[in-house]
Design goal:
- It is built from 3 helices and 11 strands.
- The protein is α+β, with helices and mostly antiparallel strands and about 190 residues long.
- It has one domain (about 25-190).
- It has a 6-stranded mixed beta sheet, with helices on one face. Strands 3, 4, 5, 6 and 10 form a 5-stranded mixed beta sheet that branches.
- A hairpin with a 5-residue loop joins strand 1 and strand 2.
Amino acid sequence: MKKFILPLIIFGLLISCDKNNEPEIENTTNKVVLLKIDYLTNLFEGGKELNFLPSSNFTISSTYQAPGDFGSVQLYYSELNEMLFDGGIIWMGTGEIAYPTIDTSSSFITTGNSVQIPDTSLFENVMYNEYAYYPDTISYSDIWNSIDNLEIVEEYRNSNPNGKINLFLYTPSVGVGNPAEWDWFVILKN
C-alpha cells in the first residue's frame, strides 16, 4: 500500500499544476481581460482573460526596472497582489511578454454588434512609472474600434458599464525604439 501513496501524491501534484503558472480559479465572477492591439495598425492581435478571487475594487499597480540594458515592467491587480502582466524592455533591442500567455485573436468570438465607445473620461493610461511614454494625442476610437465587436468586450461592458478602460502602452524597445514593436493593451474588469 505504501508503494502506491507516493506515486499518487506526485500524480496529484502534476495534474494540479498549470503549465503557464496562471491562476486556476474556476467559477469566478471576478475576471480581467487584457486585449492586445498593434500600436501602428490598431489591429487586434489577441489577449487573455484572467480569473481572480473576489474583490470589489480594481486598481492597477506596477513595478518597473528601467532598461539600462535590460529592464521590465510588471502590472498587478493591486487589491489582490496578483500579476496581470510581465514584459521585458530592452535598450536598443526588443523585450518579450513573459506573462500572460497571449491567445491569438482567433480565440475570441466576434459578434455582429459593435459596442459603443465609452466616454473618453473612462479611459485611463496605466502610469507604470513617472516617465511612462504615451503619445500626446491618443485615438481612443481607433483603439476601441479594433475590439468593439468582441463578445467578451460586450459582456464586460454590460456587467461593468462604469468601469475604467485601462490603456497600457507596452514598449519593449526603447532608446531608438521601434513603434512597429509596440502594442496597446486594453485592460477591462468585468
